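RETRY 2/3 - previous attempt timed out on the joint model. Re-submitting the same 443-residue input unchanged.
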Amino acid sequence: MPEFDASYRVIRRRGEPDVRSLEAYRRAGGYAALEKAIRQQPPRQVIQHVLDAQLRGRGGAGRPTGEKWRIVSQQPDDTRYVICNAYDADERSLAAHTMLERNPHQVIEGIVLAAYAVGASEAYLFTSSLYLEGIASVQRALQEALDTNLVGRDILGTEFNCTINVVGVDIGFMGGEETVQIAMIKGRRGMPEQRPPYPAQAGLWDRPTVVNSIETLANVPVIVRDGPQAFTSVGSATTSGTKVLTIYDYVPDSEPKVVEVPFGATLREILRHAGFNRAEGELRAVVVGGAEGGALPTSLLDTPFDFDRLEEIGAIVGSGIIELLPANTCMVAWAMERSRYLSKESCGKCVPCRLGMKRITGILEGIISDLGANNDLDVLDEFAHYVPDGSLCGFGIHAPNSLKTAKLYWLEHFRMHIQEQQCPTGTCIPVRAHRFVTKHVLP
Ligand SMILES: Cc1cc2nc3c(=O)[nH]c(=O)nc-3n(C[C@H](O)[C@H](O)[C@H](O)COP(=O)(O)O)c2cc1C
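RETRY 2/3 succeeded.
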């Protein structure tokens, strides 16, 4: 079992010394990385360290952060921006909130280091306006950092300037997408843009822009302070470092757990570390990746948590949510609930996503109401292909994941509903039952 406790790098756990104040953060080694970089390392060396640490973006797609920074730093336009994506699109993820609230200076240090590396002097911290405590905590930390010359003008007595603006909005799932954030900072309606050009080439106000997840940026001070080699000593062969996860049991209203685990740990090890010790027989599935994630059977619990490995089996790192489903879950009903939620969150810009998710939801509703037809499965397959294929952003690419994994691993649930008009777990209420009840209440 990997060394989980030694691998906490970006979140602070309950019971650990509080580092919210500047004084406490400094005592814990905070801002040493910024001092080191600004005084001893030219920007291109900071980028090289991030490349050598093989840092992959924690916002979901796992793109190499150093590559993105290098592209931005090489653009001829020398007005550049940094956006820290601290939004947490998936409303059940507590990752960004936890980092903002409990470790705000590390986030600020990461943003300033990114700005230094790519030659930006203005940054935006884009978050949810609902995170009142997180926003208050980071605003307090920003004031302390301003007062002590760690952000703002002439940082640490050098000629390097970096201001950080905090932007809070609440527009649902799509608010986490990078081009939506760029549009909203400009005061435009939040809808995704066609790429290329990528934000690294033409982002905010059409200038080269780094957009990184808050978690990606919070890892940067660790890399600069301890060196890339120490950073790669934790993690898997393809992804170094750790991942912050929010883990939910299936008992309604139970407290989720926020943990930080090394990449490469298996799902089983992660659940055990978080204190979820349910027997396999109690579970139908483990959903990995949040609202756009995929459901995996317990036979896959020994899969390592890693970008590539999870995608091979239909799940994603996504928002870093892992969720248990109880053994009596009908997976057709589960896929229907998920698709219904996502069809409401679709921004509607791309027709395949806007209409496709509605059609998927409608067909699944029909199947669980025992109104399914034999060709429903073929039609669902077509939509599961068209929606990702015709969508501009990652939302549409992953929206059918619940349907796809439910069909891949629990095809029998669909077959029973369609051919036998039976719910495999007796939990779906068919239209026939509604009719039956109605008949008896009518005079
Ligand atoms: C619908 C949607 C929601 C997203 N939500 C988030 C989010 O909450 N946080 C995040 O960091 N990235 C999110 N992303 C990914 C961002 O668009 C972007 O790729 C990411 O912030 C880049 O940072 P990284 O390279 O550090 O991962 C989302 C993408 C999509 C398509």
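Residues 83 and 211 are 5 Å apart (CA to CA). Closing ticket.
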